[in-house]
Amino acid sequence: MPPTRTHARSRKPPPTGFSEIEDTLLDFANAMKDAETAPHEGKKKYEATWEIFRISHQRSRFVYELYYKKEAISRELYEWLLKAGYADRQLIAKWKKQGYEKLCCLRCIQAKETNFGATCICRVPRARLTDESAQVQCVNCGCRGCASGD
């Protein structure tokens, strides 16, 4: 965990353009607080974190689309948002690569996280699954399919 700074002067102010997206980022922060404090009785252990993964993904996708798709924010603001923890730098790096455009979380592509040393079931295109009636859902994040071929 990074050390917390106690002096107001040591904190660098956000770059220009932050005020336009601050309300949306605040909405994501409030949703994250609600997800963290939500009761998880009756849910399985891994299901309790699914909402947190979903909100984190949406916030990172919001920053990614503002910079790469819409070109609505500056490079300086984008770097500041990544450094301040508003978006996941490694997840965004994967989204820029072919085949990972819809990736839900980094845990789904880590082979060591699965029983058989392969990627998560949500990364398999639905056309390649044998049983069409079966609902595919990731144990890590609750994703129902993030393969780019879908």
Describe this structure in words.
The protein is mostly helical. The protein has 2 domains: about 15-95; about 100-150, no CATH class. The protein contains 4 helices and no strands. It has helices at about 20-35, 50-70, 75-85, 90-95. Helix 1 (about 20-35) packs antiparallel against helix 2 (about 50-70). It is globular. About 15% of the residues are buried. The model is unreliable at about 1-10 (pLDDT under 50). Pfam families: BUD31 (PF01125). It is found in: Nucleus. Keywords: Nucleus. This is Cell cycle control protein cwf14. InterPro entries: BUD31, BUD31/G10-rel_CS.
Net shape? globular
Low-confidence stretches: 1-10
Beta content comes to: under 5%
- How confident is the prediction overall: mean pLDDT? 87
Radius of gyration, rounded? 18 Å
Helix content: 25-40%
Domain count: 2
Given the helix and strand composition, which structural class is it? mainly alpha
Biggest sheet details: none
Encode the helix/strand succession as letters. HHHH
Q: Output the number of helix runs.
A: 4
CA distance, first residue to last residue: 38 Å
Number of strands: 0
Short overview:
With 150 residues, this protein is mostly helical.
Key terms for this structure?
150 residues; mainly alpha; 2 domains; globular
Helix-strand blueprint:
Layout lengths: L17 H20 L12 H20 L5 H10 L4 H7 L55
